[in-house]
Structure prediction request, 526 residues.
Amino acid sequence: MALSSEYRVSLHEYCTMLFNSYQFLIVYLPIVMITLYLLARYKPKWAAAWLALASIVFYGGWSIYYIPLLLGSITINFFFGKKISALSAAQQLLKVRALLFCAVTTNLLILCYYKYLYFLVQTISDVTTIPLSVTQSQLPLGISFFTFTQIAFLVDASRRECEEYDICRYGLFVTYFPHLIAGPIFHHKEMMSQFTKPRAFNFNAYDISVGFSIFIIGLSKKVLIADRIAPIADSIFNVSPAITLTQAEAWYGALAYTLQIYFDFSGYSDMAVGLGRMMGVRLPLNFSSPYKASSIILFWRCWHMTLSRFLRDYLYFALGGNRLGRARRYLNLMITMLLGGLWHGAGWNFVLWGGLHGLYLVVNHGWLAIVGTHQGQLARAVGWLTTFLAVTVAWVFFRATSPEDALRLLTAMAGGNGICLPEFLAAPLRDMLGDAVINARGTFHNALFDLQASSMYIAFGMAVVLLLPNSQELLARHTPALGQVEAAPVWLQWYPNWLWGTVLGVLLALCLARMGGESPFLYFRF
Prediction:
């Protein structure tokens, strides 16, 4: 009961305002930015209002029917937050907690209605064999992100860590278009100080050059890598159950999706950071080379960092964190990751994905408790390989349309359909070890994908992931986002010079040439 293929098609059909679309790059963005700079120069308050309006238009470009839901959510949470802040100031703790409970419950009920009602009813029907049915609502885009952003605001307001008395500025905080559809998840206090500073949104050539450079890097990841690898993953994950996949085919599909979601989400995160910086706003860092992590703990410190922060601060700590003993800590980790998996989608495959990562984290913490945190180079290498393989296996559940489809692919990956290597790998091994040891040939289904091209794309993607610094490291000296990263070697760092201008200009030209029939970002459906 994951997202159906029919829903994916309908999602693609009404996607019109993509960062990687001509409409956005040539029409929407220039109009928004030029008007913003003019208003910021003469009427700073109008600039914030304009940006909030432009963000609502951006959302309406996806689905105008859910604009009332977005505006209603903003209005309800604004007044909840205002009342909670007033009560917090008076230290009426019982009333604050009661109001906070009502506010959070309201948000979660709206989220559950649109995202989980169909899944819940179908699950109850399957378990009890009672014939229940409910119409599946089309998922409002970005509902998880703007809901979680506002829940964080409400909790912070109850802790007297923020307050908001201007609905226009609050509306901008929620709808700010670089983050509205797929994050990062904001904290009110980290963004509002930037939205209200005296020279907010003013034209600044330095900010524009830094921001547009990061935007181009992100656009290149999406258009030139993620969208080129996507057909490889789709050809394997969408194959008919009647076709028996070979071991190598299954691994190609799993690795392709592992790279696709990396470059897709990394590309979006870069573009969001770049758009924010073009307006003089630093967004929180949300992605920092997670596939270089040597443990699953480090992986989650680098993948969807603001979601990890939200789950830690507002769920894991609320459950007791690590304060109630080791056994309770492991239970809290499992609960947090199971709910984190369910946050990504209403389906058992997402629950299993979250459960796997919860298990990974429990094992990782248990291992560190036994051997300590000191690691040599060999231990880090083994840790990286183990982590990467574990993450790849978990992505199979994340991408598959059902647990059964995931298990079929994992069975093939494990050799359940026979151990099979592609010929270009089998031939040299056969020469060294003999036919008696290596007797499998690469029997690929040629209709599925081009083996040579697939191998090149996957090899290129892995090289970029493991060997090159990420965009934040390239521009670390310019602090493009909120959060610290190590700088890349000096000779690789970004400078506003002709060399970097040429490189980025070529990348932009290639992206513009390859765009058309744009594909939505994978995280847009969450």
About this structure: The CA atoms of residues 145 and 183 lie 6 Å apart.
